[in-house]
Design a protein that fits this description.
Strand content: 5-15%
Structural class: mainly alpha
Low-confidence stretches: 41-47
Helix content: 40-55%
C-alpha cells in the first residue's frame, strides 16, 4: 500500500493491492480532527498507541519525502527484502543454537574435561637462562642472569646441557664434602621425637642460631644417616630404640636445678600433641577415622570464581580423614588447627609454639566435633555386653593405652550415676548414652590424652 497526504485539502490518495492486482484510490478524507501530523506509533501485535491517527486500517507507516517507485517495483523489492530477512533470521537461529552448544561444551570441559585441571609448573624441553623482570613486569625484561648457585654458597654455574639443573642441585646438596644437609635432616627427625632438636633453632644452623646441646651426637647421627643411604626409616628406628628416647618423664629436682629444660636429656619432656595429632587421635579412639587417601577438595567451579582482595575465598571442608588432608589456606587458618597452634601457612614453621588459653578448653568441652566423637564411642561402649567397670577399663585402654585403676573405675561409675540422675528428660537409654558421652569427653580433654608422657 502506498499513499500520499495532501495537507492543504486534508485528503490522501494512493494505491493498494498485490502485483498484478493494484487498485488506485483518490481524495479520501482525513479522520475527523486529524491535521495530518503523525504523532502516534504503530507496532505489530500491539496496534496503535494513544494519540490521533489517520485511520484504524492504516498500520506500519513508513514516512518519506521522496517520490514513490512504481507499485510493481516497490512490492517486488519489499518481497525480496522480506525473503532476505527471513533467511537472515533462519541463519541467526542456527548460529545461536550452535553457540549454545559450544558454550555447554566449554563449561563441561572446565569441570570434567579430558585433561585434569591443575595449577603447577612444567619442565621446559630446553631450559634457558632467565631475564630479570624490571619492577616485576613480565613485559619489561632486563639483563639475562645465568643459572648458577648463590654467590654465598659457591656460585657454581650449571654445566652446559644440564637440563633444568635440579639434578645438579641435589647432587651438590648431598655431596660428601657438605655435612650440613645430613645434620639439618637428622636434627629435624630428632625434634619430632623429642620435641626439640639437638640444635634448638631448627631453621638456623648459622652464627645466629643456638649451639648444639650434643655436637658429637649430631655428627654421629648425620654420619649414620649418610651411611644408611639417607634412609629416614633407619633413622626413626635408631632414635626410637635408643635409651634416650626410652627415658621416663619422672621429675628430678636436683637435675632440674642444673638443667630445667632437660636439654641434656636426663628425662623425657612431656609434649603436648600437635593440633593435627589431637584431631586424629580423637577420630582414632572413636573409630571414626577414615584411613583412605584424601582426594581433591570440592572447590567451587572455576567459571564461578569472582574472588578479590576485599572478597577473598574462604573454605572449610569437613572430613573424617587424617588432618594432613584438611583444607589449608593462607588468608585464614582452619578453625581447629588455628586454635591449637597449627603451623603458620605463610612461612616455614620450624617448631610449633604451644599456648594454653581458655578457648581451647571451651572448644574441647562444647564443640560439635568433640561431642560427635564422644557420642560415637559411647554407642560402641554401651553396645558391648559387659559391666560398667569393664566398659570403663576398655575406655582407659583405648584412650590412654593403660588399664583403669580401682580409683578410676570408682570415680567414673560415680560420675555416670550422678550425671544420669541429673538428666531431666529422655528415655532411660538416651540418658545412659548421654552420661557415657559426657564421661568420654572428660577423658578426651585430660592432659593424659593430650600429652605424650
Amino acid at each position: 500500500m502506498q499513499f500520499t497526504l495532501d495537507l492543504h485539502t486534508k485528503t490522501y490518495s494512493g494505491t493498494v493491492g498485490a502485483p498484478g492486482d493494484v487498485i488506485p484510490f483518490n481524495g479520501l478524507a482525513f479522520t475527523d480532527g486529524w491535521d495530518g501530523v503523525i504523532d502516534t506509533t504503530f507496532v505489530d501485535m500491539y496496534g496503535p498507541t494513544g494519540g490521533l491517527r489517520p485511520a484504524h486500517d492504516v498500520d506500519n507507516l513508513v514516512i518519506a519525502t521522496t517520490p514513490f517507485s512504481p507499485v510493481e517495483k516497490s512490492i517486488e523489492n519489499a518481497e525480496q527484502r522480506a525473503a532476505d530477512v527471513r533467511a537472515l533470521l533462519t541463519k541467526s537461529d542456527a548460529l545461536n543454537t550452535r553457540l549454545l552448544e559450544l558454550m555447554a561444551m566449554r563449561d563441561q570441559a572446565k569441570t570434567s574435561g579430558p585433561y585434569e585441571f591443575v595449577f603447577g609448573a612444567i619442565e621446559q624441553d630446553k631450559p634457558k637462562d632467565a631475564q630479570v623482570q624490571l619492577r616485576g613486569e613480565k613485559l619489561k625484561p632486563g639483563e639475562t642472569v645465568p643459572r648458577r648457585n648463590l654467590d654465598i654458597l659457591g656460585n657454581d654455574p650449571v654445566p652446559e646441557g644440564a637440563g633444568s639443573g635440579r639434578l645438579q642441585l641435589a647432587q651438590w646438596l648431598t655431596r660428601p664434602e657438605n655435612p650440613l644437609t645430613a645434620r639439618v635432616m637428622v636434627n629435624r627427625i630428632w625434634q619430632q621425637h623429642f620435641g626439640r632438636g639437638i640444635v634448638g633453632t631448627e631453621n638456623d644452623f648459622g652464627a645466629r642460631g643456638q649451639r648444639p646441646s650434643h655436637p658429637e651426637l649430631l655428627d654421629w647421627l648425620a654420619t649414620r644417616f649418610v651411611q644408611s643411604g639417607w634412609s629416614l626409616k633407619a633413622m626413626h628406628r635408631l632414635m626410637m630404640n635408643s635409651a634416650a628416647y626410652q627415658q621416663s618423664s619422672d621429675y628430678d629436682a636436683q637435675a632440674a636445678e642444673m638443667d630445667h629444660e632437660a636439654r641434656l636429656l636426663w628425662r623425657f619432656n612431656p609434649r603436648r600433641l600437635s593440633a593435627e595429632e589431637i584431631r586424629d587421635a580423637m577420630l582414632f579412639v572413636s573409630h571414626d577415622l577414615d584411613s583412605t587417601m584424601g582426594g581433591e577438595h570440592p572447590f567451587p567451579p572455576v567459571e564461578s570464581w569472582g574472588f578479590s582482595q576485599h572478597g577473598p575465598y574462604y573454605g572449610v571442608y569437613p572430613t573424617s580423614r587424617r588432618s594432613v588432608y584438611l583444607m589449608q589456606q593462607r588468608l585464614k587458618k582452619h578453625p581447629f588447627l588455628g586454635l591449637f597452634d597449627g603451623a603458620d601457612t605463610n612461612v616455614s614453621t620450624a617448631r610449633r609454639e604451644v599456648t594454653t588459653v581458655p578457648t581451647q578448653a571451651l572448644y574441647l568441652m562444647n564443640n560439635e566435633f568433640v561431642h560427635e566423637r564422644s557420642a560415637s564411642l559411647a554407642k560402641q561402649i554401651v553396645a558391648t555386653t559387659t559391666t560398667d567397670a569393664e566398659r570403663v577399663n576398655d575406655l582407659f585402654v583405648n584412650a590412654f593405652s593403660r588399664p583403669a585403676t580401682a580409683d578410676d573405675i570408682a570415680d567414673s561409675t560415680a560420675f555416670l550415676a550422678t550425671y544420669e540422675t541429673a538428666l531431666a528428660s529422655g528415655t532411660p537409654e538416651e540418658r545412659r548414652l548421654t552420661a557415657w558421652s559426657a564421661l568420654i569427653r572428660t577423658l578426651l580433654t585430660r592432659n593424659e590424652f593430650l600429652f605424650v608422657d
